[in-house]
Amino acid sequence: MNNVPKLIVFSAPSGAGKTTLVRHLLKQEELNLAFSISAASREAREGEIDGVHYYFLGIKEFKQRIRDEKFLEFEEVYKDQFYGTLKTEVERLWAQGKNVIFDIDVVGGLRLKKKFPDRTIAIFVKPPSINELQIRLKKRKTESQEKIAMRVAKASTEMATAPQFDVIIENDDLDQAKNKAYRVVQDYINAPVASHEEE
Ligand SMILES: Nc1nc2c(ncn2[C@@H]2O[C@H](COP(=O)(O)OP(=O)(O)O)[C@@H](O)[C@H]2O)c(=O)[nH]1
Ligand SMILES: Nc1ncnc2c1ncn2[C@@H]1O[C@H](COP(=O)(O)OP(=O)(O)O)[C@@H](O)[C@H]1O
């Protein structure tokens, strides 16, 4: 049953490097991955494209979709900043026979794992230290000082969830982290799904 599409979840505190690793994996065509485009209530950053990086819904529309039960999972990841996986997004990618890769917060990641236990691998990206997160976020220059502080403040709680994930990838040396991510994902995609999985 190797052809059952799988879910590959990358979660981590902001700045740990999950987006970098996910983008690297998406370039490897043999993995047959497609990115789950999340919905977000925040504004697009410079260079981010609606319908490519996120579906930028704005807060009103986001809340309407919550009421309409359109989400597989959603979270208020930071105060007044909602993110979520739309049911239609995963259906769309599964219909294409793709393995779906997610860049989502730790709570959402563990929630997906619970929903699809037999076809999900949950990967935690661990930064070398919380201080390093701050350095990376400053260098990335996408967030204000205040938003960086908000992200870093949440990092310790997020780090504490690491043992609940299937695999932890330490992202210190980027090339090593990329190689490990590739091996882990390749092995998981090639492994048969558990025999009690319903199809
Ligand atoms: N639960 C959940 N979290 C998400 C989703 N999409 C993105 N996130 C998370 O929301 C957080 C903020 O994302 P973003 O604004 O892109 O900032 P970044 O992580 O600093 O690059 C990150 O932890 C994302 O992984 C989603 O669909 N569901
Ligand atoms: N191993 C690494 N060493 C140094 N910088 C890194 C490393 N991995 C990622 N970065 C940089 O750190 C910043 C945060 O990475 P990003 O992938 O955006 O993290 P996340 O998606 O987890 O918030 C980016 O500017 C990225 O280029």
Report the mean per-residue pLDDT as an integer: 94
Percent strand equals 15-25%
Helix content estimate: 40-55%
Tell me the CATH topology: Rossmann fold
Count of separate DSSP helical elements: 7
Number of domains: 1
Q: Outline the low-pLDDT stretches.
A: none
How are the strands of the biggest sheet laid out side by side?
Answer: 2-7-1-8-9
Number of strands: 9
Instruction: Provide the CATH architecture.
Output: 3-Layer(aba) Sandwich
Distance between the termini: 10 Å
Query: CATH superfamily name?
Result: P-loop containing nucleotide triphosphate hydrolases
How large is the radius of gyration?
Answer: 16 Å
- At the first level of CATH, the class is Alpha Beta
Overall geometric form: globular
The hetero molecules present are:
guanosine-5'-diphosphate, adenosine-5'-diphosphate
Question: What this model shows, in words?
Answer:
With 199 residues, the protein is an alpha/beta fold. The chain has a single domain (7-190), classed as Rossmann fold. The chain is built from seven helices and nine strands. It has helices at residues 18-26, 58-67, 87-95, 106-115, 130-140, 145-159, 174-190, and strands spanning 7-11, 33-35, 38-40, 54-56, 71-78, 81-86, 99-103, 120-126, 167-170. The strands form two sheets. It has a five-stranded parallel β-sheet, sandwiched between helices. The chain has a four-stranded mixed β-sheet with strand order 4-3-6-5, sandwiched between helices. A hairpin with a 2-residue loop joins strand 5 (71-78) and strand 6. The longest helix is centred in the last third of the chain and has 17 residues, at 174-190. The radius of gyration is 16 Å and the shape is globular. Bound molecules: guanosine-5'-diphosphate and adenosine-5'-diphosphate. Residues 14, 19, 38, 73, 75, 77, 83-85, 103-105, 107-108 line the site of guanosine-5'-diphosphate. The site of guanosine-5'-diphosphate (GDP) has 14 residues, from strand 5, strand 6 and helix 4.
